[in-house]
Specification:
Keywords: Membrane, Oxidoreductase, Transmembrane, Transmembrane helix. By secondary structure, the protein is mainly alpha-helical. The protein is 72% helix and 0% strand. The longest helix has 29 residues, at 12-40. The radius of gyration is 17 Å and the shape is globular. The two termini are 22 Å apart.
């Protein structure tokens, strides 16, 4: 508390669930996006990248040993969340194909704005 934190006591399963969704999954998504772009880069792709890409992939620059630790110890939850997230990406692909993307983007923006 002296350093501005708010300690919360959780059992291990709840901790792994919450951190899997709010920390581990975002890290893996950021890392995988940057990895995908690295495979597509043939020399100057990142010369055209702006702050949006930098923001989305910032956490991919985290300490690999730390991320290896949480991926190894929370592997099953991360795998499950990643599989569900892949399904969400497929849903987003459908919204683009059906021209419903704007509606979904507006709904997500409103919810995110309420949080932050």
């Amino acid at each position: 508390k002296d350093i501005g934190s708010n300690p919360v006591f959780l059992n291990a399963d709840t901790h792994d669930y919450i951190l899997g969704l709010t920390s581990h999954l975002p890290y893996v998504v950021s890392l995988s996006l940057f990895y995908y772009l690295m495979k597509k880069d043939h020399g100057n792709l990142f010369d055209f990248a702006g702050s949006g890409l930098r923001d989305v992939t910032r956490i991919a620059s985290g300490d690999p040993m730390m991320s290896y630790g949480f991926v190894k110890t929370n592997k099953e939850k991360i795998k499950g969340f990643l599989a569900e997230y892949i399904e969400t990406l497929k849903e987003f692909l459908s919204t683009i194909e059906s021209d419903d993307f704007l509606h979904v983007a507006e709904v997500v923006k409103k919810r995110r704005d309420k949080i932050w």
